[in-house]
Structures are given as structure tokens and as C-alpha cells.
């Protein structure tokens, strides 16, 4: 009799535990993940930004609406906007989010952009509302800048090695090239590289790359102290010193009203014979006519990934026919597989937002 009572008691305990575990499981299953909407133009960009691993990571923390929004002003979006907790954005949609559209997203908590800035997705009024609501914003500017720094590093090494002229004359002559005669000053040992606006994100990353080589580095920057420059492996210098003493000048200045045409004839005339000018920043920062005039003398060389006033470069530009000019079609920033680095960054930042963790690249 006592045995039967004990058995029934044990059964009751087990059943109660099962019910408790079952209820906990139902509770966990009913806990909904936040909703993420996608916006970018063109919509196919998302397939270049994201690989299977990144989709799996994002799906683990959020419900993702993979129907990409390219225009926030089309009809039929209200339900999707009302459900949105976070926005994954790429390069801008056809129409930015205005204050009226933002009001349709009462649950919005964060915007993470696979672009240099998240705020460009918003009109000024919407941006102000985002700030007032405490909506987080994050961008991929630093991540997008890594390939730019790597591009500059590659160009610096090849320019110092006289790679571009070596390739050209070998192809033209199709015979033995006497290296001692043709390239007496080629090489990277103890050459001087000058960075203009060295305090920028891209330039700082480039400084880190330059540390691995036997180069002298000059850093022009208003925001960087002499001590910080030294810690980054460089010596602080003014703009004139950078142009006068460098074998290679790499420009990293943003295009602002105050910087239009900033690099003019004065600076190009200061450059050493045979020196190189690299522009992977913005063409408008350079006085194009002054640069072309000095390049026509053959005294200096240039590597241009950006141009102004035309980009792509106009078909009749004299730059096309100059042997001392290397032109690339604005490829320094993320392209190909590098775009996935930006997608990875967005997934990282959205995960931080969802988990209440600090952002790496918050705005």
C-alpha cells in the first residue's frame, strides 16, 4: 500500500515537472524576435552584401523581411513599416524616409547602414525625429574605407617600385631591360610617403598598413597631435612640407565647400621630380586644370581613382593619353567580395542593437 502511494506521488511530481517544462517551452517559442526591413537601390545589392553565413546570423536574432524596399512612398507599405523594429539599409533608395514615413514606424529602434552614413537615408526633419526618439544609427564607413586604404597601399608600393613604367616599356620594347639604367631610384626603402588629411578614417587605416614597411611617413592633419602621429608611425607636417618632401602624396580630404580646389598649382609645382600624386578621395578637392598643367610637363606622375568635373572622365580629357597618369574607374572602395565585409558589419551592428550592446560604429 505504501509502495503504491509513493509511486503515485512520484508520478504526480514527474507530471508537474513535465507541465512546467512544456509551459516554459511554449513561452520561449512565443517570444517573438524583432523585425528587420531592408532598403537599398538597386534591390539586388543585398545579394552582394550578404552571404549564407551572414543571413544565418541575422535570422538567428531577427525576423527579416527580405522584400527590399526601394521607395518608401509607394502604396501598400503601411503594415510592413508598422511592424519594423530595425532597418538594414544600403545605398539610398529612390526616396528618403521623411517625417511622415517615420511616424508610420512607431516601433523603430535602430538603423544600420551598409554605407558611409546612415543619416543620408533620412530627410532633415526625419533625422531630427530619430534623434528625439533615441533611435540608434550605425554605418559602415570605416569598413568601406578598408579597401580604399588597401588600394592606396598597393599603389604606393607599385609606384615606388616604378612598376607602371616598367610594365609599359617592357611591353613596348619587347627586349632586355637594363634595370640599373632604367630604374636607378626604384624601390620602397627609405622613400617618403605623405598623407594629406591623415586624421581621416581611411588615412588612419593606411597609416597602420604603412607601419609594416621601411618608409618615412609624413602626416598632414589638423586633428592629429604630434604625439599621436608618432604613435601611428608618422611625423606630423604641414601641407607644403608634405608636397615638397614626399616621393608619394596620398590625398584623403573630403569634398566640402571649404576644400573645393584646395590642392592647386602651388602644391603641384612643389613636388619632387618623379614624385607621385594619388587621389582616391574626391576629385573636387583638386584644381584639375592646375594638376593637368603640371602633369603635361612630365615632371610628376599621378594615380587617379576619382576625377572632377567629370566622373567618369570625359572622353576628350588629356589625362587618357598621358603615360605618367594611371586611371582607375572609382574602384578603391568596396567592390566584389569586399561588399560582404559591409554586410557583415551591418549584421554585427544590428545584433548589438538587438542585444543592447555598445555599437562599434554608431552615429
TrEMBL record:
Pfam families referenced in this protein's UniProt entry, alphabetically: 2-Hacid_dh_C (PF02826)
Under CDD domains, the record lists: 2-Hacid_dh_8
Q: Which GO molecular function annotations are given, in alphabetical order?
A: NAD binding; oxidoreductase activity, acting on the CH-OH group of donors, NAD or NADP as acceptor
Q: Which InterPro entries match?
A: D-2-hydroxyacid_DH, D-isomer_DH_CS, D-isomer_DH_NAD-bd, NAD(P)-bd_dom_sf
Oxidoreductase as UniProt keyword: yes
- The keyword Zinc-finger belongs to this UniProt entry's keyword annotation: no
Listed A to Z, the keywords are: NAD, Oxidoreductase
- Report the residue ranges that make up the D-isomer specific 2-hydroxyacid dehydrogenase NAD-binding domain in this protein: 153-332
| Similarity remark | Belongs to the D-isomer specific 2-hydroxyacid dehydrogenase family.
What this protein is called in its record is: Hydroxyacid dehydrogenase
Amino acid at each position: 500500500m505504501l509502495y503504491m502511494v509513493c509511486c503515485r506521488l512520484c508520478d504526480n511530481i514527474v507530471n508537474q515537472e513535465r507541465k512546467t517544462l512544456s509551459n516554459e517551452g511554449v513561452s520561449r517559442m512565443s517570444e517573438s524576435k524583432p523585425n528587420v526591413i531592408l532598403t537599398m537601390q538597386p534591390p539586388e545589392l543585398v545579394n552582394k552584401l550578404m552571404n549564407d553565413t551572414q543571413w544565418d546570423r541575422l535570422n538567428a536574432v531577427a525576423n527579416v523581411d527580405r522584400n527590399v524596399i526601394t521607395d518608401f512612398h509607394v502604396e501598400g507599405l503601411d503594415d510592413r513599416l508598422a511592424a519594423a523594429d530595425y532597418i538594414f539599409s544600403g545605398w539610398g533608395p529612390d526616396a528618403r524616409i521623411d517625417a511622415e514615413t517615420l511616424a508610420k514606424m512607431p516601433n523603430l529602434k535602430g538603423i544600420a547602414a551598409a554605407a558611409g552614413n546612415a543619416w543620408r537615408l533620412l530627410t532633415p526633419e526625419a533625422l531630427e525625429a530619430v534623434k528625439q526618439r533615441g533611435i540608434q544609427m550605425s554605418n559602415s564607413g570605416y569598413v568601406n574605407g578598408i579597401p580604399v586604404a588597401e588600394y592606396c597601399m598597393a599603389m604606393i608600393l607599385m609606384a615606388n617600385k616604378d612598376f607602371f613604367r616598367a610594365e609599359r616599356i617592357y611591353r613596348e620594347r619587347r627586349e632586355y631591360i637594363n634595370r640599373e639604367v632604367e630604374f636607378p631610384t626604384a624601390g620602397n626603402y627609405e622613400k617618403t610617403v605623405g598623407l594629406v588629411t591623415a586624421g581621416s578614417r581611411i588615412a588612419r587605416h593606411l597609416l597602420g598598413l604603412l607601419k609594416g614597411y621601411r618608409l618615412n611617413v609624413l602626416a598632414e592633419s589638423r586633428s592629429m597631435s604630434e604625439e599621436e602621429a608618432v604613435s601611428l608611425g608618422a611625423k606630423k607636417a604641414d601641407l607644403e612640407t608634405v608636397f615638397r618632401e614626399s616621393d608619394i602624396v596620398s590625398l584623403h580630404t573630403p569634398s566640402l565647400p571649404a576644400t573645393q580646389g584646395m590642392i592647386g598649382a602651388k602644391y603641384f609645382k612643389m613636388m619632387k621630380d618623379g614624385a607621385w600624386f594619388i587621389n582616391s578621395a574626391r576629385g573636387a578637392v583638386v584644381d584639375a586644370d592646375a594638376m593637368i598643367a603640371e602633369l603635361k610637363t612630365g615632371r610628376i606622375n599621378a594615380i587617379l581613382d576619382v576625377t572632377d568635373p567629370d566622373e567618369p572622365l570625359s572622353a576628350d580629357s588629356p589625362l587618357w593619353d598621358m603615360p605618367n597618369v594611371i586611371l582607375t574607374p572609382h574602384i578603391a572602395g568596396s567592390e566584389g567580395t569586399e561588399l560582404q565585409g559591409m554586410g557583415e558589419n551591418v549584421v554585427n551592428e544590428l545584433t548589438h542593437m538587438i542585444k543592447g550592446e555598445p555599437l562599434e560604429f554608431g552615429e
